[in-house]
């Protein structure tokens, strides 16, 4: 608990408060809560010579605009956004079947398959037999602490934003919480389907390759390993925050750095294989960017 409080204090000091102080007028984004940016100063240009005929400059087609959403602290608004997110998530496979998004889907599938076959057995056995080496790291970034951190970070953004009347910061926290919930439900369903055994549940000298469809947990309490929900939470929250503040590189480095530490803790604690964690991170990034932020 002391470590968790220390991490939250560090986050508030170096993350939420600076954002609140610096970004009173953040850049315009697809959400409806961002104020409009100020116009840049006009630079005088020399007069152009008269044209003898119609201009040959082709007019650029209008850029499509993303639909704005009501991002507010009300149950109806959150429910509408949540169900809209779920519709986008669970109708995605139908789009893939009809030929959409084939390249990224095949790339992710290939990377995941390569990790399952080539790295998972070796990595799972290594961390399983070297548990004492990483005991200090695993105690600091335990399952309960990392879970609480992925929830407290968005909640702190909401709290600081509401207290300081910084609506953009508060709505960033709300969107990050929305992404957290979306990832949790998606990962829960996938773990129930895969029923993959965790490295921690395999004997030290056991078989780390034959791990699929080996658990018999309740559908309401998925004990499977594939994919990692913790990693998905971390990268969903990190992506939402980082892409809401693209003008600050330190936000991106800090957000994804913390999410990467969460990913590493899932491996060193033998709670997940490498493929579980990597796919969880991709899932979190995709839901945070393409589903919640609609970018």
Report on this model:
This protein has 295 residues and is mainly alpha-helical. The protein has one domain (75-292). The protein contains 10 helices and no strands. It has helices at residues 2-22, 75-90, 92-97, 102-129, 135-140, 143-163, 167-194, 229-244, 249-268, 274-292. Helix 2 (75-90) packs across helix 7 (167-194).
The tally of helices reads 10
**Helix and strand pattern:** HHHHHHHHHH
Mean of residue pLDDT values: 82
Taken together, the total number of domains comes to 1
Strand content: under 5%
Percent of residues in helices comes to: 55-70%
Structural class: mainly alpha
Query: Which radius of gyration do the C-alpha atoms yield?
Result: 23 Å
- The dominant shape is globular
Beta strand count: 0
Main beta-sheet strand count, sense and barrel state: none
Low-confidence stretches: 24-32, 34-41, 49-67
Straight-line distance between termini? 36 Å
Show the helix and strand layout.
Blueprint: H1 2-22, H2 75-90, H3 92-97, H4 102-129, H5 135-140, H6 143-163, H7 167-194, H8 229-244, H9 249-268, H10 274-292
Helix pairs in contact: 1-6, 2-7, 4-10, 6-7, 6-8, 7-8, 7-10, 8-9, 8-10, 9-10
Summary keywords:
0% strand; mainly alpha; 295 residues; globular
Quick structural overview:
The protein is mainly alpha-helical and 295 residues long. It has helices at residues 2-22, 75-90, 92-97, 102-129, 135-140, 143-163, 167-194, 229-244, 249-268, 274-292.
């Amino acid at each position: 608990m002391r470590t968790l409080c220390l991490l939250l204090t560090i986050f508030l000091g170096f993350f939420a408060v600076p954002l609140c102080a610096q970004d009173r007028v953040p850049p315009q984004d697809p959400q409806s809560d961002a104020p409009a940016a100020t116009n840049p100063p006009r630079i005088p240009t020399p007069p152009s010579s008269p044209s003898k005929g119609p201009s040959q400059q082709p007019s650029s087609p209008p850029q499509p605009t993303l639909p704005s959403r009501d991002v507010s602290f009300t149950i109806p608004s959150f429910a509408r956004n949540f169900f809209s997110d779920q519709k986008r998530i669970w109708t995605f496979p139908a789009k893939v079947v009809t030929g959409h998004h084939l390249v990224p889907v095949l790339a992710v599938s290939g990377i995941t398959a390569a990790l399952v076959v080539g790295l998972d057995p070796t990595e799972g056995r290594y961390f399983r037999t070297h548990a004492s080496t990483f005991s200090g790291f695993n105690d600091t970034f335990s399952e309960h602490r990392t879970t609480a951190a992925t929830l407290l970070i968005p909640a702190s953004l909401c709290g600081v934003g509401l207290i300081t009347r910084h609506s953009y910061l508060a709505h960033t926290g709300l969107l990050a919480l929305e992404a957290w919930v979306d990832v949790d439900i998606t990962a829960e369903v996938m773990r129930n389907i895969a029923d993959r055994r965790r490295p921690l549940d395999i004997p030290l000298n056991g078989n780390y390759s034959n791990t699929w469809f080996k658990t018999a947990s309740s559908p309401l309490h998925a004990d499977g390993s594939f994919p990692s929900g913790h990693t998905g939470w971390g990268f969903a929250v990190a992506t939402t925050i980082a892409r809401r503040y693209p003008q600050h590189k330190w936000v991106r480095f800090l957000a994804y750095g913390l999410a990467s530490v969460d990913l590493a803790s899932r491996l060193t604690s033998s709670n997940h294989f490498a493929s579980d964690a990597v796919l969880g991170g991709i899932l979190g990034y995709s839901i945070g960017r393409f589903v919640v932020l609609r970018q």
